[in-house]
Design goal:
alpha/beta; Undecaprenyl pyrophosphate synthetase; six-stranded parallel β-sheet; 8 helices
Protein backbone atom coordinates (compact mmCIF):
# COMPACT_ATOMS: atom_id res chain seq x y z
CA UNK A 1 0.00 0.00 0.00
CA UNK A 2 1.84 3.07 -1.29
CA UNK A 3 1.73 6.56 0.23
CA UNK A 4 -1.38 8.40 -0.94
CA UNK A 5 -3.60 5.33 -0.60
CA UNK A 6 -6.43 5.35 1.89
CA UNK A 7 -6.62 2.47 4.36
CA UNK A 8 -8.92 -0.38 3.39
CA UNK A 9 -9.57 -1.49 6.97
CA UNK A 10 -9.60 0.86 9.97
CA UNK A 11 -9.96 -0.23 13.59
CA UNK A 12 -10.90 2.14 16.41
CA UNK A 13 -10.31 1.73 20.14
CA UNK A 14 -13.09 4.01 21.37
CA UNK A 15 -11.63 5.09 24.70
CA UNK A 16 -12.65 7.85 27.08
CA UNK A 17 -16.44 7.70 27.48
CA UNK A 18 -16.31 7.45 31.26
CA UNK A 19 -13.67 10.15 31.65
CA UNK A 20 -15.63 12.43 29.32
CA UNK A 21 -18.67 12.16 31.60
CA UNK A 22 -16.76 12.44 34.88
CA UNK A 23 -14.95 15.58 33.71
CA UNK A 24 -18.39 17.17 33.29
CA UNK A 25 -19.76 15.95 36.60
CA UNK A 26 -22.02 13.45 34.84
CA UNK A 27 -22.64 9.76 35.35
CA UNK A 28 -20.44 7.43 33.31
CA UNK A 29 -23.58 6.15 31.57
CA UNK A 30 -24.00 9.58 29.96
CA UNK A 31 -20.53 9.25 28.46
CA UNK A 32 -21.38 5.86 27.00
CA UNK A 33 -24.54 7.28 25.43
CA UNK A 34 -22.56 10.13 23.90
CA UNK A 35 -20.11 7.54 22.62
CA UNK A 36 -22.90 5.82 20.70
CA UNK A 37 -23.74 9.12 19.00
CA UNK A 38 -20.09 9.52 18.01
CA UNK A 39 -19.98 5.97 16.65
CA UNK A 40 -22.89 6.59 14.29
CA UNK A 41 -21.27 9.75 12.92
CA UNK A 42 -17.96 7.96 12.42
CA UNK A 43 -19.60 5.03 10.63
CA UNK A 44 -21.27 7.46 8.22
CA UNK A 45 -17.99 9.30 7.61
CA UNK A 46 -16.13 6.02 7.03
CA UNK A 47 -18.65 5.13 4.33
CA UNK A 48 -18.33 8.58 2.75
CA UNK A 49 -14.53 8.28 2.70
CA UNK A 50 -14.76 4.99 0.84
CA UNK A 51 -13.37 2.75 3.56
CA UNK A 52 -14.19 -0.92 3.07
CA UNK A 53 -14.03 -2.15 6.68
CA UNK A 54 -14.41 -0.45 10.05
CA UNK A 55 -13.79 -2.42 13.27
CA UNK A 56 -15.14 -0.84 16.47
CA UNK A 57 -14.00 -2.01 19.92
CA UNK A 58 -17.38 -2.00 21.64
CA UNK A 59 -16.86 -4.29 24.66
CA UNK A 60 -13.71 -6.21 25.53
CA UNK A 61 -13.31 -9.47 27.43
CA UNK A 62 -11.69 -7.36 30.16
CA UNK A 63 -14.68 -5.03 30.48
CA UNK A 64 -16.48 -7.67 32.57
CA UNK A 65 -14.24 -6.47 35.43
CA UNK A 66 -16.18 -3.23 35.66
CA UNK A 67 -18.98 -2.77 38.18
CA UNK A 68 -22.09 -4.88 37.66
CA UNK A 69 -24.18 -1.75 37.16
CA UNK A 70 -21.90 -0.46 34.40
CA UNK A 71 -21.71 -3.83 32.64
CA UNK A 72 -25.50 -4.20 32.77
CA UNK A 73 -25.93 -0.70 31.36
CA UNK A 74 -23.47 -1.41 28.53
CA UNK A 75 -25.36 -4.58 27.57
CA UNK A 76 -28.62 -2.59 27.47
CA UNK A 77 -26.89 0.13 25.42
CA UNK A 78 -25.60 -2.42 22.91
CA UNK A 79 -29.14 -3.74 22.43
CA UNK A 80 -30.52 -0.24 22.03
CA UNK A 81 -27.81 0.67 19.55
CA UNK A 82 -28.48 -2.39 17.40
CA UNK A 83 -32.21 -1.66 17.31
CA UNK A 84 -32.02 2.11 16.90
CA UNK A 85 -29.39 2.02 14.16
CA UNK A 86 -30.80 -0.97 12.31
CA UNK A 87 -32.60 1.20 9.75
CA UNK A 88 -29.48 3.36 9.37
CA UNK A 89 -27.51 0.28 8.31
CA UNK A 90 -30.27 -0.80 5.94
CA UNK A 91 -30.62 2.64 4.33
CA UNK A 92 -26.86 2.95 3.81
CA UNK A 93 -26.38 -0.67 2.67
CA UNK A 94 -23.86 -1.26 5.45
CA UNK A 95 -22.99 -4.85 6.32
CA UNK A 96 -22.64 -5.63 10.03
CA UNK A 97 -20.57 -8.50 11.41
CA UNK A 98 -19.60 -9.53 14.93
CA UNK A 99 -16.23 -10.51 16.36
CA UNK A 100 -15.86 -11.90 19.85
CA UNK A 101 -16.69 -14.79 22.12
CA UNK A 102 -20.40 -15.58 22.06
CA UNK A 103 -20.21 -17.38 25.38
CA UNK A 104 -21.07 -15.12 28.35
CA UNK A 105 -23.08 -12.66 26.24
CA UNK A 106 -26.74 -12.45 27.33
CA UNK A 107 -29.13 -14.39 25.08
CA UNK A 108 -31.13 -11.28 24.18
CA UNK A 109 -27.98 -9.42 23.13
CA UNK A 110 -26.89 -12.35 20.95
CA UNK A 111 -30.35 -12.47 19.38
CA UNK A 112 -30.14 -8.81 18.33
CA UNK A 113 -26.57 -9.21 17.07
CA UNK A 114 -27.55 -12.23 14.98
CA UNK A 115 -30.60 -10.44 13.60
CA UNK A 116 -28.62 -7.44 12.34
CA UNK A 117 -25.85 -9.65 10.96
CA UNK A 118 -28.34 -11.81 9.08
CA UNK A 119 -30.36 -8.91 7.68
CA UNK A 120 -27.29 -7.05 6.36
CA UNK A 121 -25.18 -10.00 5.18
CA UNK A 122 -25.70 -9.35 1.46
CA UNK A 123 -24.88 -5.63 1.53
CA UNK A 124 -21.77 -4.62 -0.40
CA UNK A 125 -21.06 -1.20 1.09
CA UNK A 126 -18.97 -0.53 4.16
CA UNK A 127 -18.58 -3.51 6.51
CA UNK A 128 -18.83 -2.59 10.19
CA UNK A 129 -17.21 -5.14 12.48
CA UNK A 130 -18.60 -4.84 16.03
CA UNK A 131 -16.16 -6.28 18.57
CA UNK A 132 -18.36 -7.32 21.47
CA UNK A 133 -16.94 -9.53 24.23
CA UNK A 134 -13.72 -9.49 22.22
CA UNK A 135 -10.10 -10.01 23.18
CA UNK A 136 -7.21 -10.49 20.78
CA UNK A 137 -5.61 -13.29 22.79
CA UNK A 138 -8.96 -14.99 23.27
CA UNK A 139 -9.59 -14.92 19.51
CA UNK A 140 -6.25 -16.60 18.82
CA UNK A 141 -6.85 -19.28 21.47
CA UNK A 142 -10.34 -20.00 20.11
CA UNK A 143 -8.95 -20.27 16.58
CA UNK A 144 -6.31 -22.78 17.69
CA UNK A 145 -9.00 -24.81 19.46
CA UNK A 146 -11.02 -24.93 16.23
CA UNK A 147 -8.03 -26.45 14.44
CA UNK A 148 -7.47 -28.99 17.19
CA UNK A 149 -11.16 -29.93 17.18
CA UNK A 150 -10.87 -30.51 13.43
CA UNK A 151 -8.01 -32.92 14.05
CA UNK A 152 -5.32 -30.80 12.43
CA UNK A 153 -1.81 -32.00 13.27
CA UNK A 154 0.00 -29.15 15.07
CA UNK A 155 3.07 -29.78 12.90
CA UNK A 156 0.96 -28.98 9.83
CA UNK A 157 -0.28 -25.67 11.20
CA UNK A 158 0.26 -22.60 9.01
CA UNK A 159 -0.55 -18.92 9.42
CA UNK A 160 -3.09 -19.20 6.61
CA UNK A 161 -4.92 -22.04 8.37
CA UNK A 162 -5.13 -20.07 11.58
CA UNK A 163 -6.13 -16.90 9.78
CA UNK A 164 -9.14 -18.62 8.19
CA UNK A 165 -10.40 -19.63 11.64
CA UNK A 166 -10.34 -16.19 13.17
CA UNK A 167 -13.75 -14.74 14.01
CA UNK A 168 -14.04 -13.21 10.56
CA UNK A 169 -11.28 -14.89 8.59
CA UNK A 170 -12.11 -13.28 5.23
CA UNK A 171 -11.46 -9.78 6.57
CA UNK A 172 -8.27 -8.09 5.36
CA UNK A 173 -5.62 -7.09 7.91
CA UNK A 174 -6.17 -3.82 9.76
CA UNK A 175 -4.24 -1.03 8.03
CA UNK A 176 -4.83 1.72 10.58
CA UNK A 177 -5.70 1.55 14.27
CA UNK A 178 -6.98 4.75 15.88
CA UNK A 179 -7.03 5.11 19.65
CA UNK A 180 -8.79 7.98 21.36
CA UNK A 181 -8.39 9.07 24.98
CA UNK A 182 -4.65 9.69 25.13
CA UNK A 183 -3.36 6.22 26.06
CA UNK A 184 -0.89 4.56 23.70
CA UNK A 185 -1.36 0.81 23.91
CA UNK A 186 -3.15 -1.92 21.97
CA UNK A 187 -5.37 -3.14 24.86
CA UNK A 188 -5.73 -6.62 23.35
CA UNK A 189 -7.30 -5.21 20.17
CA UNK A 190 -7.04 -7.29 16.97
CA UNK A 191 -3.59 -8.64 17.85
CA UNK A 192 -3.51 -11.04 14.90
CA UNK A 193 -5.09 -8.86 12.23
CA UNK A 194 -3.25 -5.78 13.44
CA UNK A 195 0.27 -7.25 13.40
CA UNK A 196 1.44 -4.62 10.89
CA UNK A 197 -1.10 -1.88 11.54
CA UNK A 198 -0.16 1.76 11.58
CA UNK A 199 -1.25 3.51 14.80
CA UNK A 200 -2.80 6.92 15.26
CA UNK A 201 -3.21 8.26 18.80
CA UNK A 202 -5.25 11.28 19.84
CA UNK A 203 -5.83 12.95 23.20
CA UNK A 204 -9.47 13.50 22.32
CA UNK A 205 -11.93 11.42 24.33
CA UNK A 206 -14.22 9.29 22.20
CA UNK A 207 -17.39 11.44 22.53
CA UNK A 208 -15.35 14.41 21.22
CA UNK A 209 -13.94 12.51 18.23
CA UNK A 210 -15.59 13.90 15.10
CA UNK A 211 -15.86 12.89 11.44
CA UNK A 212 -13.25 15.56 10.68
CA UNK A 213 -10.90 13.83 13.14
CA UNK A 214 -11.39 10.55 11.28
CA UNK A 215 -10.55 12.27 8.01
CA UNK A 216 -7.42 13.77 9.59
CA UNK A 217 -6.32 10.29 10.75
CA UNK A 218 -6.87 8.86 7.27
CA UNK A 219 -4.93 11.72 5.70
CA UNK A 220 -2.09 11.11 8.15
CA UNK A 221 -2.07 7.45 7.13
CA UNK A 222 -1.85 8.41 3.46
CA UNK A 223 1.50 10.11 4.12
CA UNK A 224 3.09 7.04 5.68
CA UNK A 225 5.44 4.66 3.91
CA UNK A 226 4.68 1.10 5.01
CA UNK A 227 7.69 -1.20 4.73
CA UNK A 228 6.21 -4.43 6.14
CA UNK A 229 9.43 -5.29 7.97
CA UNK A 230 11.60 -4.46 4.97
CA UNK A 231 13.37 -1.22 4.10
CA UNK A 232 13.05 1.62 1.66
CA UNK A 233 16.13 2.00 -0.55
CA UNK A 234 15.28 5.68 -1.05
CA UNK A 235 15.49 6.53 2.67
Amino acid sequence: MAPGTIPRHVGIIMDGNGRWAESRGLKRSKGHREGVTSAKAIVKKAADLGLSYLSLYVFSTENWKRTQDEVSFLMILIKQYLKQEYQFYIDNRIRVIHSGRRKDLPADVLKDIDMVVEQTKDFTGLTVNLLINYGGRDEIVRSVKKLLDEGVNPSDLTEEMLDRRMDNGPLPPVDLIIRTGGDQRSSNFLLWSGAYSEYYFTEKLWPDFTPDDLQEAVEDFEKRNRRWGGYDAHE
